[in-house]
Amino acid sequence: MPIIYPESAAPVANQLPLTIISGEAPAAGRAEARHGIFTAEMDWIDIGINLTHGSFDADREAVIARAAAAGVTQLIVTGATVAGSEAALELAKARPGRLFATAGVHPHHAAELDAGQLTRLRALLAEPQIVAAGECGLDYFRNYAPRQSQLSAFAQQLALAGEIGKPVFLHQRDAHADFVALLREHRDRLHGGVAHCFTGGAAELEDYLELGLAIGITGWICDERRGQHLHALLPRIPPGRLLLETDGPYLLPRDLLPKPANRRNEPAFLPHIAALVARLRAESLAQCAANTSAAARQLFGLPEAPPL
Asked: Is domain 3-300 annotated with CATH 3.40.50.300?
């Protein structure tokens, strides 16, 4: 069975030319061809998957198995509420070395972060399977929580992350100025972080890189309507600062063929996103896997994936 790598050609909208390089098929169960991308001997990490979402309830184990078969050997389960973070922790505890979790309160739920929830969040962040504080940040696009509540919850979580010594898993939408201001205020006490699901422009990217953040890229980059501007920005991200994520069940890549009947995104589709990322950065798929996985392990303190 061939191994397929993206060509290092100039980006062409809605096209992903592939070069076929012959290679040995892997042992059964290690990797498989999915949507035209073969990931044998590659090691991927999905740094943002909402695996506690109800859409995964019926087949969560199968989703994890499909991810492993596609070479996505480690997953970080996103926590967006305290209760959701506790559920994410339980998933991670059940699959040591393969699943990890974040713990935090998304800006949509910022008004819920009271003293009791902050105590529970502190306890969660002390758990070794919790590798980051978040998803936290600011969202002025939806404004589901009052802005003052968002600012307060974000500041509290930044302080907690700095105190406990874990990186931050960050969300920002239409709130760049306030977001960067708070990060700069806490910068000296933070232990790194990632701008999750980056969809911004060049100025935002430069601000985040200057702050020392990693950049999380999702299937948004595969969206010819909204993600085209990201293509020119990918080469500007240093190799040690680029991370990959699906953000499933959301953000199913628009150019994925065939599309799943349920239109749900999942970690097995991460190599599809990576193929476009690699082409835009003029690197092989193997280089992309090695660099992004090494960067994820460094930021989140992850071990090597255990054997399947």
From this structure: no
